[in-house]
Amino acid sequence: MSEVTLKVEGMSCGGCVRNVTGVLTALPGVESAEVSLDQASATVRFDPATIEVSALRHAIEEAGFDSPA
Ligand code: 9UX
């Protein structure tokens, strides 16, 4: 497993946190996601053989948030 912390911009309430958490943990290869409203971040544990960091960021953006590098 690898771990990465991504920026997540645009979250404004706990519902956003749940949505981002759900989107990330639904992805194949993602073991867990710890999303912080205060830190505007998501720390994701994932299997790099199954999914790339770019796909994690893409999923965040598809959910309506920004994940700048
Ligand atoms: Mo809160 Mo976020 O009412 O997508 S759920 S702003």
Automatic annotation (TrEMBL):
Superkingdom of origin organism: Bacteria
Pfam annotation, one family: HMA
Organism: Parazoarcus communis SWub3 = DSM 12120
Signal sequence, renumbered to the chain: none
PANTHER family noted in UniProt: P-TYPE CATION-TRANSPORTING ATPASE
Keyword Magnesium: no
Record key words, sorted: Metal-binding
Domain HMA: residue ranges: 2-68
Record-linked SUPFAM superfamilies: HMA, heavy metal-associated domain
InterPro entries associated with the record: Heavy-metal-associated_CS (IPR017969), HMA_dom (IPR006121), HMA_dom_sf (IPR036163)
Protein name per Swiss-Prot or TrEMBL: Heavy metal transporter
